[in-house]
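Researcher: Next sequence.
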Amino acid sequence: MSHAPRPLIHVVEDDPAIARLIESTLQRFDFRCELFATGGDFLRQLRTHTPQVAILDLGLPDMDGLEVMQQLRARHRFGLLIVTGRGDTHDRVMGLELGADDYMTKPFEPRELIARVRSILRRYQSEPASSNGSASRRAWFAGWQFDTGTHRLTRPDGKEDTLSVAEAQLLTVLLEHANQILSRDQLLDGRDVCALDRSIDLRISRLRRRLDENPQHAKLIKTVYGAGYLLAATVSWQ
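Model: Next structure:
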């Protein structure tokens, strides 16, 4: 009987104690793990092989974690989890807008770390099944076009953009339930483990930017206070 290889996780963390904690936690749950103390070492390693998920600290000694994100997202497509001690919400928002799939703040519970890593892995593992020709669908809404297989978003003026896995999944759920109020739990499909986590709001904000929406006066993705979000558009599928 053949067994699938254990997922490889790259940990980019300059604090040795935290790096060892993350490493031991990952290994305890049967993940392979490689540690990097600098952003430069991590980026150089990506030239030869890539992980299934990277866990990235934003406060690195040689370069800012957001700069690391910009460089890797320009060339690579794999899961990315921010783990940071920074309390500034702006940094977390910027991280998600640059392509992170999720974030956690230090200190964190090891089991929550594992839950988030597994959640990100599920998103990327389900991607090939949605990318084959038979499963790919196209949606038209408010002058926009979205291809679920390639994650390509085409603007009304014809310009194209490619969404991240998290953005594509969120937009797909909204399109499939157009003009319906969806709670945060429904939008996350039960993937996130913390009921108080507000990362869905940041993901909505990122998606609104993709759609050229002003968050204060959003016309496509509306906030229904106390209930969730609603995509207000007529959607046609092919």
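Model: Residues 128-134, 190-196 have pLDDT under 50 and may be disordered. The domain at 129-237 is CATH 1.10.10.10 (Arc Repressor Mutant, subunit A).
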